[in-house]
Design goal:
alpha+beta, 4-stranded mixed sheet, 9 helices, two-stranded antiparallel ribbon, about 240 residues
Amino acid sequence: MPHEADIPTIYHIEGSRAFRVIWLCEELGIPYELVFKRGDPAASMATLRTVHPLLPMAPVVRYGGELIVESGAILEILLTRHGKGRLVPAADSADFLFHVQWLHFAEATVMSRMLTERFVAMASGMDVDKMPKGYTVGMDVTAPAMIGSTAVFGYVDDFLSKHAFFGGAEFTAADIMMEHALRVAKLVVWADTNDYQHIKAWRKRVAARPAYECAARAATPGGADEYGLPIATGHPLMRPSTSVS
């Protein structure tokens, strides 16, 4: 029986990165408590502001008597304390290198590039899908100095053309981190990653996992749309023409 302090309390907003923590707990069989207001992201955020006023963000997890943020860090803590070697390749394997890279790539590169494009588009009054595909120096558009999200998706798809999972041969926590980033691309930069053959096949594989299905039911009990948001909720980053029904 786990000690009460070792049972994570996950402060959640439907459609948020907190889904990663829920999914990991389901994969590892870790008991957890989920705190959110079903179908009401604003009310869930109000709870977060009460619990963690200096940095209200999802997920916030109460664990070991502390409040912890950052989904990647939370996953590493739970893997270290409860994983018993599961969902992480052997440290002396080539797959371990892939696992660690993609575990960090999800936020440091995929989400970072996408959100940069979104914020610049908002500041410029442009539709995000009309943004340049990469920052260039001078007139040489063939050699961008900074790649954009389109190049990132191409790199991801190329990797998945050679490997079944982001952990290499087997599913790992890196896949949990990457799934959210690739799912919300259509929301953040209006790019459907299902347009990439190998990403689409991988998304189908991971969504078929029993723990994913359990996590989805727990995270959005009223059902979710293609972004993982509760049905009919809507979101300010959606295309203006997107209908919510």
